[in-house]
């Protein structure tokens, strides 16, 4: 396992853009610097369903692992909100994309835009959100989620009618799971800001437009 971890670290380090590495606040640790808890965390990330062999070089994992006890707990939350809620992937990913847009987090956006499209979300929904516009081609359940999330982020409150529509659509458990999904990615976004993460620009992912302050 040590050999595979070391090989993964070397491969990912070569792939990391120099410009991003120069700006980020948390340097990449090498295999000899890791505690037993940090090694266990990275090795868990390499297992399915993540199969992430570059986690040590990439935020938010390289930031999380500065507190390995917390990192393991966040991994469990992340696994649940991504794959354990029973929600259709397009709804889970839409919740994450809305959060990414609120924080203007291109790092979160780049991965979850792709996952949302694979999960069945109309690409125009993501394009509209990236531009800071209300999407025009949402399905009914997507509209209910979008309305709920936008009221929460914009107003710091949710109207009774909006709440009732969300509970009717998703159930109490489903709604709380979606709220927790957004809350987890709020943590991710703040972690990325703390780490001063820089997302590479990729042509197949819309760039988040600057929003008025």
Summarize this entry quickly:
The chain has 213 residues and is mostly helical.
Task: Label this structure with key terms.
213 residues; mainly alpha; globular
How are the SSEs placed, and which strands pair?
Blueprint: H1 2-15, H2 18-23, H3 36-45, H4 61-64, H5 68-83, H6 89-103, H7 106-118, H8 123-130, H9 140-155, H10 160-195
Helix pairs in contact: 3-5, 5-10, 6-7, 6-9, 6-10, 9-10
Explain this structure to me?
- With 213 residues, the chain is mainly alpha-helical.
- The protein has helices at 2-15, 18-23, 36-45, 61-64, 68-83, 89-103, 106-118, 123-130, 140-155, 160-195.
- The longest helix is centred in the C-terminal third of the chain and has 36 residues, at 160-195.
Elements, N to C (H/E): HHHHHHHHHH
Q: How much is the radius of gyration in Å?
A: 18 Å
The best one-word shape is globular
Q: Low-confidence parts lasting 5 or more residues at pLDDT below 50? A: 5-21
Query: Overall pLDDT, averaged?
Result: 89
Question: Which percent bin holds the helix content?
Answer: 55-70%
Termini Cα gap: 48 Å
Report the biggest beta sheet as strand number plus sense, adding barrel if it closes: none
How many strand segments?
A: 0
User: Which strand-content bin applies to the residues?
Assistant: under 5%
